[in-house]
Every structure is written in structure tokens, then in C-alpha cells.
């Protein structure tokens, strides 16, 4: 069956690309302001640097047969870079940052003890579960499940966190609570990795995720101790070595989460820091433009895009 090519329409670069001055409300969100309400709309502008970056990203999309959705927010310098940042992409396992944060919020409120134990049964195990599959017949704490979901991208751990929260819809509710009006989670692992083009289920936008991650890791959406816990797990991730982290300039570090799915979906999202302390919320979504469900994700495309974006944002 011939793929529907219309699902892979490349949005106009004129409306998809901008370096902007971030409005005061967004600055406040990253510096201890309120955590409700969507980020303020940017004021667009252009520079020679953005033209060069636009050309680079178009070349990378052609080279790897992918379509990017990118958002980068310089939380101190006040610049935002967007590339198809309003287009919907399948989240895949990147959703677990919100799921873990929602669990941490319950712990913060005294509604959950991270040391509480969860039985791990054979029936629970789904594909790509390197930690929980080694603990069948035993118990794991919510602390251990959260760490497994973020550090090793353990799908069963993600499902068990969703079970405690009340299902996928709880992640959508959590997103709304931090001002993310776009993110929605509808299914469990591994069904949510289907990434069917034009299917709105289990999707978000790069712009929405960048704002949400910024509030969780750099803002006050969580109490300090829980924010540090979340950040530590994300910094310990072992799944992004060939994606965002391969594209980091020398001396930079990342707290991020990857996601992979059908139709060549390869995502990486988080916050990166320069050696001088500059922090940038960075989201890179990508999917294949071939239209084939079994297309492999292009890790080098994500790495090269990260290098290109940070090369411009750090100037």
C-alpha cells in the first residue's frame, strides 16, 4: 500500500523558524514565576545566523530523510529558536519525564512514599524493559521505577508509574497543571510508540515540551529536592549517547530523555548547560519522511541538529 505522502508535508520555513526575544512571562516562569498559563508568544526577528541554521537544518532533513520539530530556549539570554515547533510529533518515551514528575509531586504532597514497593509480575513486562525484566517475582520501589524509566527508558517501569497515577490521562492533566496546553497521552507502552502520522494521540509539540521541561528542571513546578532528583535521573540517562549528547559542544552536559517509535521516530528532549552555566531547554523531535512504519530512527540526525542549534544559540 502506497504511503500517504500528504502526512509528511513540510511546513513553511518562514513561519516555522525564528530567533526571538522571550516575553517577560516566560522569563518569570524560568526564574521563580507562576507555573500556570501557556508561555507568552514570542516576537519574531531574523539574523544572518538564523539563515545559516535554516539552511543547515534543511540539508540535514534531506540527508537523513527526516522532518524535525525543534524548540530551544536560552533561559538566561532570552532567545528562542523554533523549527516546526508547533507541529505535532509522537512523544514515545519522552512522556516519562512528565509521568515521573507527577509521581514526585504526589510524594511532595505526602500522597505517596517513594519507598513504597510495587510487585513486578511476568504479565507486567513489555518490550524494552531492561530493569524490570530482571526483577520479575520481586518488588521495586517507586524511586527505583522512576529511575529505571528515566535512566534506562524502561517501558514497564513507565507503565507501572502510569498505573499509580491512574492511567495515561493523568499525564495530560499534569501537563495542563504546568501550563502545557498541547501535550496529551492516551495509551500505554508500547502502543503509544505507534507514532502513526497525523494521529493526535500521544503527541505534543516541541514548543510545548520545551516550556514544560524548563519549568520542571529550571523552574518551580516541583519543590527543590524533587526537582534535583528528577534532574539527576535525567543527567544519568544512558540512552541519548548517540543523539543529543553526541552533538553537544565540548564541556556541555545534558539532562534529557529519549523516545523512539515507528515511522523512524527519534526524539530527545531536556535541558543542556554550557561550561559557563548557560542553560538551554532543548527539544528535538524527528520522524522519517519515507512513510514506512519500520523506518529506522536517525540518531545522527538528532545529534547533528543539536550541534547546529547549539552552535548558533551559544554565539
Instruction: Quickly count the domains.
Output: 1
Strand order of the largest sheet: 2-1-4-3-11-10-9
Detail the poorly predicted runs: 1-48
Subunit arrangement of the protein: single chain
- The percent range for strand residues is 15-25%
| CATH architecture assignment | 3-Layer(aba) Sandwich
Q: Briefly, what CATH class?
A: Alpha Beta
CATH H-level superfamily: DD-peptidase/beta-lactamase superfamily
Strand count, sense and barrel status of the largest sheet are: 7 strands, antiparallel
Q: Per CATH, what is the topology?
A: Beta-lactamase
The end-to-end span amounts to: 47 Å
Number of helices: 10
Q: Compute the CA-based radius of gyration.
A: 18 Å
- The class by helix and strand makeup works out as alpha+beta
Amino acid at each position: 500500500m502506497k504511503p500517504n505522502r500528504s502526512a509528511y508535508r513540510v511546513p513553511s520555513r518562514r513561519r516555522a523558524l525564528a530567533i526571538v526575544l522571550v516575553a517577560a512571562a516566560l522569563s518569570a516562569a524560568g526564574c521563580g514565576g507562576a507555573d500556570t498559563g501557556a508561555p507568552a508568544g514570542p516576537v519574531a526577528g531574523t539574523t544572518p545566523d538564523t539563515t545559516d541554521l535554516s539552511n543547515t537544518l534543511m540539508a540535514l532533513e534531506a540527508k537523513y530523510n527526516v522532518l524535525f520539530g525543534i524548540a530551544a530556549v536560552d533561559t538566561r539570554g532570552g532567545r528562542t529558536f523554533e523549527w516546526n515547533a508547533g507541529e505535532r510529533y509522537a512523544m514515545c518515551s519522552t512522556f516519562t519525564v512528565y509521568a515521573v514528575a507527577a509521581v514526585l509531586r504526589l510524594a511532595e504532597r505526602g500522597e505517596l512514599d517513594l519507598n513504597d514497593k510495587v510487585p513486578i509480575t511476568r504479565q507486567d513486562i513489555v518490550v524494552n524493559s531492561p530493569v524490570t525484566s530482571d526483577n520479575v517475582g520481586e518488588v521495586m520501589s517507586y524511586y527505583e521505577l522512576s529511575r529505571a524509566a528515566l535512566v534506562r527508558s524502561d517501558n514497564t517501569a513507565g507503565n507501572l508509574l502510569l498505573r499509580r497515577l491512574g492511567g495515561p490521562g493523568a499525564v495530560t492533566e499534569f501537563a495542563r497543571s504546568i501550563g502545557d496546553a498541547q501535550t496529551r497521552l492516551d495509551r500505554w507502552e508500547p502502543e503509544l510508540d505507534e507514532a502513526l502520522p497525523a494521529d493526535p494521540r500521544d503527541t505534543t509539540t516541541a514548543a510545548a515540551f520545551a516550556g514544560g521541561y524548563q519549568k520542571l528542571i529550571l523552574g518551580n513546578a516541583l519543590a527543590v529536592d524533587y526537582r534535583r532528583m528528577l534532574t539527576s535521573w535525567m543527567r544519568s540517562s544512558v540512552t541519548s549517547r548517540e543523539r543529543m549528547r553526541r552533538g553537544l559542544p565540548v564541556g556541555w552536559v545534558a539532562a534529557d530523555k529519549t523516545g523512539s517509535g515507528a515511522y523512524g521516530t527519534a526524539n530527545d528532549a531536556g535541558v543542556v548547560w554550557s561550561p559557563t552555566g548557560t542553560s538551554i531547554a532543548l527539544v528535538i523531535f524527528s520522524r522519517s519522511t519515507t512513510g514506512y512504519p519500520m523506518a529506522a530512527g536517525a540518531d545522527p540526525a538528532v545529534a547533528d541538529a543539536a550541534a547546529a542549534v547549539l552552535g548558533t544559540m551559544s554565539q
